[in-house]
From TrEMBL:
NCBIfam families for the chain: PRK09065.1
Short name of any one Pfam family annotated for the protein: GATase
All residue ranges annotated as the Glutamine amidotransferase domain in the record: 19-194
InterPro entries on file: ChyE-like, Class_I_gatase-like, GATASE
Protein name according to UniProt: GMP synthase
Entry GO CC: cytosol
Protein origin, superkingdom: Bacteria
């Protein structure tokens, strides 16, 4: 039976892990789908990428690494991404995964000229999002959690831009039928976002109190993961 593979591209802060779990835990929670056979592949621990024929879908998580550092595990993952798209395997890249997808498919990912985006922010959808299977019926404007210094500066030529905001012109895109990148974090809860703000503020000067006051739950952003899980489950059932 085909599986949904979560490609774990990194781990979060120790304090965050101890209180709330790690990237893969949040993803699984927001997928909210007991019908999926899920397997986690830790690429930083040099676990092998799965054969394409075993993949009903793939999610690439966030990471504290930088795409431009081109670490060996990241380069290997980058080379694998086009084969997923070519074979129309459902793919969702989150934050680091979004940036790596853009790079792998011919776009450009690097540091954002305005620095870090962090906190609960407003996301705005493009008109084309109304026809998209993950974004349709969502409000034109909704809240999502963000934490990133790098971004997809230029999308691949064949990409459809789906979402943006004042900070980032490429917050979500789709390539082909079912490969998506999202810069924001659909897997985060308010507690996780607060934990990130507190941890980042230990090393970087932030308007911490203001950011913490502005965090809230983001059910519309979370819904994107649930819909992706439903899409993958449908693929498994049709197999």
């Amino acid at each position: 039976m085909k599986k949904l593979f979560i490609i774990k591209a990194g781990t979060t802060f120790k304090n965050t892990v101890s209180n709330y779990g790690d990237f893969e835990d949040w993803v699984i929670e927001k997928l909210d789908n007991e019908n999926l056979d899920i397997k986690i592949i830790d690429v930083q621990a040099k676990e092998a990428l799965p054969p394409l024929e075993d993949c009903a879908g793939v999610i690439i998580t966030g990471s504290h690494s930088m795409v431009t550092d081109e670490e060996p595990w990241s380069v290997e993952l980058e080379k694998w991404i086009p084969s997923l798209v070519e074979n129309e395997i459902a793919l969702l890249g989150i934050c680091y995964g979004h940036q790596l997808m853009a790079k792998a498919l011919g776009g450009v990912s690097s540091y954002h000229k305005d620095g870090m985006e962090i906190g609960t922010v407003e996301i705005e959808l493009e008109e084309k999002a109304k026809e998209d299977s993950l974004f349709n019926n969502l409000p034109k404007n909704f809240k999502a959690h963000t934490i990133h210094s790098q971004t997809a500066l230029t999308l691949p030529k064949n990409a459809i831009r789906l979402a943006f905001n004042k900070h980032d012109s490429n917050h979500a895109f789709r390539v082909g039928k079912n490969a998506w990148g999202v810069q924001f974090h659909p897997e985060y809860s308010k507690n996780v976002m607060n934990s990130y703000i507190k941890e980042v503020s230990k090393a970087k000067v932030l308007p911490t109190e203001k950011l913490l006051k502005e965090t809230e739950e983001t059910p519309n952003a979370n819904l994107i993961l649930k819909r992706f899980g439903e899409l993958v489950a449908k693929e498994v059932n049709n197999d």
